[in-house]
Design brief:
disordered C terminus, 3-stranded antiparallel beta sheet, mainly alpha, single chain, elongated, Serine Threonine Protein Phosphatase 5, Tetratricopeptide repeat, 19 helices, Rubrerythrin, domain 2
């Protein structure tokens, strides 16, 4: 409420000044007689913390002319920020309908109306306005940025690529990461339609756009595995994990599966040994414990987990350790562990595993684009949750 009142103060001042100027210019007492009461009524609402009534009063006294365009734009912005999109749309539509606007003023009103439509979810109308702005050569950069947001929401990835190219050409801004994800999305569409070669070609373009695109490498490995080339899949996934260790939890299950498919348990154990040494308490610990249980028995796996817990305590490791120890021990401690296990399991399940490094958004599953700030590749597994999966 206080913020809104502060925003209305300059509008009230501008309204009074414009009314006085118009009165002086026209030298008509009637104008003063009509405008004065409305202005003071608006001020009275403002002082009584009645912003809605104050806004209505100020809008009532403002006629659209060259002196009031900026005030109308400010009012429209205020309405949109407050969530009153319909009122913002009416103000900006009223502005655009005025033939006396300069080319720059009309372009600014078009930009504001496009944002109103976006806020209202009317993406088709917003897109048409931003495309019109592109043709005017005014406010092209914000128009392209808004178009990119619209195309992402509509999942029109080819239009995203074209718009990103235009933005790069216009501003010099590098959008390599975003373009790589657009290619990945198109690859997924091609794969779903049974066009495997087109999907593979798209993934090559994704990596050409952004060499370190983890998502593209991951998808390449999946395509290789689908074709039975597990050695290539393991190689690609290992390179991916080495390039960005934060994504090791995402690719580890497929690395383990790939090694098992080619029957190379020695290679798997060597990889897990290296991963555990490089990332104590990391996701490879539980995978190593599972392998030890197969090769050397449950006691060896339990001892390994106990040693790892002392190095890097993690809830996920503790839960796995409890699971093993309840099968090994037959004593009162077993009943205690059985009682403790569901509570720890609930803690593990309820904790957000992923977090956006840009805005802090937390999630239980991996999103390649943050639902909150819409940044690409900004969500990764939280460090203290590495073994909770």
């Amino acid at each position: 409420m206080q913020e809104l009142l502060l925003l209305l103060l300059p509008i009230a001042a501008a309204s009074g000044w414009l009314a006085a100027r118009r009165s002086e210019r026209k030298q008509q007492k009637a104008c003063v007689g009509e405008t004065g009461p409305v202005y003071f009524r608006g001020l009275n609402h403002l002082l009584n913390e009645e912003p809605d009534k104050a806004i209505d009063a100020f809008v009532e006294m403002l006629e659209v002319d060259s002196d009031t365009v900026e005030t109308h734009l400010a009012l429209g912005n205020l309405f949109r920020r407050r969530g009153e999109v319909e009122r913002a749309i009416r103000i900006h539509q009223n502005l655009i309908a005025r033939p006396a606007l300069t080319r720059e003023q009309r372009a600014q009103a078009l930009l504001e109306l496009g944002q109103d439509y976006m806020r209202a979810g009317l993406f088709d109308r917003a897109e048409n306005l931003f495309r019109e702005l592109k043709e005017t050569k005014l406010h092209v950069r914000p128009a392209l940025k808004h178009l990119l947001v619209i195309y992402e929401k509509e999942r029109d990835w080819q239009s995203c690529l074209e718009t990103a190219d235009q933005l790069e050409s216009l501003t010099g801004e590098k959008l390599a990461l975003q373009k790589s994800h657009y290619h990945c999305e198109l690859a997924l569409e091609a794969e779903a339609q049974g066009r495997g070669s087109d999907a593979a070609a798209r993934l090559k373009k994704a990596i050409a756009a952004y060499r370190d695109c983890v998502r593209a490498s991951h998808l390449q490995a999946r395509l290789a595995a689908d074709q039975g080339d597990y050695r290539a899949a393991v190689r690609i996934l290992r390179e991916t994990a080495e390039r960005d260790a934060d994504y090791l939890p995402e690719v580890l299950p497929e690395i383990v599966s790939g090694y098992r498919q080619i029957g190379d348990t020695d290679g798997l154990r060597a990889f897990l040994d290296d991963s555990v040494a490089a990332h104590p308490g990391g996701p490879a610990v539980i995978a190593m414990a599972d392998l030890l249980k197969e090769q050397e028995g449950e006691q060896a796996a339990a001892d390994f987990l106990a040693a790892q817990l002392s190095r890097a305590p993690r809830l996920g490791l503790l839960l796995s350790s409890i699971d093993l120890n309840t099968r090994l021990q037959e004593s009162q401690s077993e009943r205690f562990l059985e009682t403790l296990r569901p509570y720890i399991h609930r803690l593990v399940e309820e904790r957000p595993v992923y977090q956006c490094g840009h805005c802090g958004f937390e999630a239980k599953t991996l999103h390649w684009q943050c639902p909150s700030c819409r940044s690409w590749s900004s969500i990764k597994r939280k460090r203290d949750n590495e073994t909770d999966a």
